[in-house]
Design brief:
The chain has eleven helices and 18 strands. It is an alpha/beta fold and 346 residues long.
Length: 346
């Protein structure tokens, strides 16, 4: 067993984030990775603002972060990894032994140890540190010429690729994406890359609507626009597939009227706890409602798509700050009027 004292972005409670010394330990079966960049996600913001993310409540200090890339410092013999190699880190650590994992649905593993998560206790530390120790299987190498600020989008893009996969074949389909934050915008790009002929977006933020158009949306509307809503609801619904990426209560309920008979709704926004849902219209139009949660093999696909330029996420990058400015970075990322995606440089 080896150990190393590093600087890490620790969260101990609401609005209590600081850069602290942290000891990492690793054995000969693990890879040691020098972290280069990390992207701040919605769950990081929730831990920062509230000391919890959904049902996951902080009970002890935890290293934040599950979107990050780095450089191999040490790797086990026979792992295929070499020192100096750039890698994206898959933060998922499923048990690989339960019936769900063995069926290929590791994202649904009830024992999933997801990095930067307080779901279990002891908490699973994340990747916002100078170094991390991970299973070699979590490391996805990418070419040295690729830009780390691009590849660090692999985790959120993987979430979106899984959602697109849940929707089935999008070739020739007309698509609506409600919520044009980073996830919604990456869904737009992924849907178009998978054959959708038109993608329309909605968001209450003018800044987000502008980003949606930059990411490929043919138009972006304010969901409070009654004229647009009436047009989309006419004749049973205007869209073949709706991706609900906001989690807003009103948006979750509204997409049923916008989806054509026989269409598909993919729910990946997680904000709404309770919704007065229009079950009747869902049934009589035979709309399929499908959930989408995290990802499986899509993580590697995301790295490849970013590596070869199939998707360009950089319109979403608002700012990059040094790791000692983590609290300021989280404050900025929390302000949706000013920022989409904020990165930390380690």
């Amino acid at each position: 067993m080896q150990s190393k004292i590093v600087k890490a972005v620790m969260v101990t409670g609401a609005h209590d984030v600081r850069l602290e010394d942290y000891t990492i330990n690793w054995d000969e079966a693990q890879a040691l990775v020098k972290v280069e960049r990390g992207g701040i996600c919605g769950s990081d913001i929730h831990y920062f603002q509230h000391g919890r993310a959904g049902m996951s409540v902080l009970k002890s200090p935890m290293v934040l972060g599950h979107e990050f890339v780095g450089i191999i410092e040490q790797a086990p013999h026979g792992s295929g990894l070499t020192p100096g190699q750039r890698v994206a880190i898959n933060p998922s650590q499923p048990c690989q032994q339960c019936e769900i994992c063995l069926s290929g649905k590791q994202n649904l593993c009830r024992s999933m140890r997801f990095m930067g998560s307080a779901q279990f206790y002891p908490h699973v530390n994340g990747g916002f540190a100078q170094y991390v120790a991970v299973n070699p299987a979590q490391c996805v190498p990418y070419c040295a010429e690729a830009n780390p600020e691009v590849i660090v989008f692999a985790e959120p893009l993987a979430v979106c690729l899984h959602a697109v996969r849940q929707a089935g074949d999008l070739t020739g389909k007309r698509v609506l994406v409600t919520g044009a934050g980073p996830i919604g915008c990456l869904v737009i790009a992924a849907a178009l890359a998978c054959g959708a002929t038109e993608v329309v977006a909605t968001d209450i933020s003018e800044r987000c609507r502008a980003l949606a158009v930059k990411m490929g949306a043919s138009s972006a509307q304010d969901p409070r626009d009654e004229q647009a809503a009436a047009q989309w609801s006419a004749n049973g619904g205007a869209f073949d597939v709706c991706f609900e990426a906001s989690g807003a209560t009103s948006a979750v309920a509204s997409v049923v009227s916008y989806t054509r008979p026989g269409g598909i709704i993919v729910q990946l926004g997680m904000g709404a706890a309770e919704v007065n849902y229009p079950v009747g219209p869902l049934l009589v139009k035979e709309i399929q409602l499908r959930g989408s949660f995290r990802f499986t093999s899509e993580f590697t696909t995301a790295v490849r798509w970013l590596e070869n330029g199939k998707i360009n996420p950089l319109p979403l990058l608002s700012e990059a700050l040094n790791m000692d400015e983590a609290a300021a970075a989280l404050e900025l990322a929390s302000d949706k009027a000013r920022a989409a995606k904020v990165q930390l440089v380690f």
